[in-house]
Amino acid sequence: MKTTEETRIIPLNPQVDAPADELQQKLADENWRKSIPAQVFLNYFFAINYHIQENDDVLGGLQNLPFFRSHTAELNDADVAALTKLLHTSWSTEYALRATAELGDENFLRNALHWTFPQAYHAILSGLQAFLYTTGVRSNNGQLIRREVGRLVVKNAYPRPVSFYAAGAYGDFSIHRLPLAGYKAGLHIASKEIDAQAQIGQMLRTTRKMKAQWTRQQVQANPNTAIRSQKTGRPLDKWTAAHWQQITWRLGYTTIFDLLGRLRISESTREIERYVEADIDFRLFHSSLLNIVSYLNGIHETYVAKALGLERYRELVAELPVHLQSGFVQERLRTRVEPVLAPTPPTAPAIAAEGQQFRMAA
What we know:
By secondary structure, the protein is mostly helical. Helix content is 61%, strand content 2%.
């Protein structure tokens, strides 16, 4: 009797024979690997918020800055109307950002990154433009705004928690007002000030590097500005340190506003999808962004209130549209603006109470 020899079948995917727990571990490792860019981005913004919370005290506040104390502006009715429009834009955008936090669960917040990233950026940008308006800078040009706010950061127009910046040429960057920024940044959420400063320092360096590389492309693409080979006369493909030094002046200073500018990655669908699909804490991401927005908008609102006069600013807030009444704008007036401009107004609580309220902003 002829026997049939059993043919051994070798699976094309050997993993099917692997233990279930091993497969799960490999899948988890792969998900973590894919989530690293998004986790690093979350780490950056959590670190900024952590640094703000840890250093937001009376000594480092606006009222102790000579620049703030000397800030004045001559504003006519047209100027007041322009400032009101900018502030309303900022507040309405922040209102939408806050509404997402109130309405959404974890999955909703994940997909909401498509609009919360640009909302956070533009809420701050409109408030910044209102502040710059009172300094005489009245432009919508992004490069001009970035340059001017960089100068203001370096001039100590901003409180200590957000006064850090990077300077220097490509390959020779220096970080200022972050003494712990030189430490190696980890892949975990900051739990100490050293972690936060290391991660902010890393973000400053990578952001400035990206800006330097982009600037080089712009310079070399322009026949009138391109750095050329002395031998061939053609634009150089490889640069030395001396060449990078020649464009340093074009970079300006890299500040927290450049870091926030990276939120505009949402304008690229392919880029934002990497974050939507990542396995990270989206609630933490959202709350960190919202606290940063609230803090910076509070600074800009205080400058505008000082330029307008506190009573006129109170009137502006009292005349807000219905959707903005009895909300975060009035709360910041009471807890951020009035304690600085009128240390003992009848509507202002103790400053310590404000600190607790700010931590609950999101």
